[in-house]
Amino acid sequence: MNILIKAAAIAGMASLAFSASAAAQTLETVKERGKIIVGIQGDNPPYGFLDSQGQNDGYDAEVARLVGEYVGVPVEFQIVTNQNRIAALQTSRVDVIFATLSMTAERAEALQYTQPYAEQPFYVLAPVDMEINGVEDLAGKRIGVPRGAIMDLQLTALATESEILRFDDDSSNVQALLSGQVDAIGGSMFYEDRLNAQAEGKFENKFSTGSLYVGAGTRLNDHEWTKTINAAFDEATANGKLGELYQKWFSMELPKMTTPVEGVNWTLE
Length: 269
Prior knowledge:
Blueprint: H1 13-16, H2 26-33, E1 36-40, E2 43-44, E3 48-50, E4 56-57, H3 59-71, E5 75-79, H4 85-90, E6 96-98, E7 112-127, E8 142-146, H5 150-158, E9 163-167, H6 170-179, E10 184-188, H7 191-198, E11 203-218, H8 223-238, H9 241-250
Parallel strand pairs: 1-5, 1-6, 8-9, 8-10
Antiparallel strand pairs: 2-3, 3-4, 7-10, 7-11
């Protein structure tokens, strides 16, 4: 897994983290309540989005439902954004985050990661006729990013001679490029498809800024709940269901995802 930079520290996260004594025992709560409340994105296909009937769909939604099946309770979804998803977890508004939560050591100070269930490359995207081959070509340009997302942290650190414009979500970031509000944007490997769906052949991936594993997020020190989700992932991997979902949504085989991530411990060992 190639990561070109370490994300900058996320302001305020550590101050929100629960202490060991205050950590909620989520598994017990979930069983007593009879459902899992999942924080998920509503505008980031194919991970988490709303279908034509307004129902939560995508890879994150289906993987969360597999966890519900493993625990034996249904799943209820609550929409979160890049900037409020961790706070929603820490304030117990949700039991777990399935919201394209890329793994970084800085975030691991504020939450507990499960084992990874996806790997996501990141790119800079711009018009086809714009000459951009690397970070040096972004100098003097307006670059759009989703506020608080990995692309925000990456490009703020890398593109120091660019004007970084932050948008509330992925959809707003994509629209900013389509409308000419920015010259380029940072996004996932699925941004190019989203752009081509609205302006075929006009935009492309220019260069990669690296890739990160994606894990679910639980509260710090709530080890029983985290181990339960890891066990659900192990079962779904062994019986092929996770691989089927990966093929369905990403049209590729499920990666091995065994390379350690510095500063992140998902095994709880």
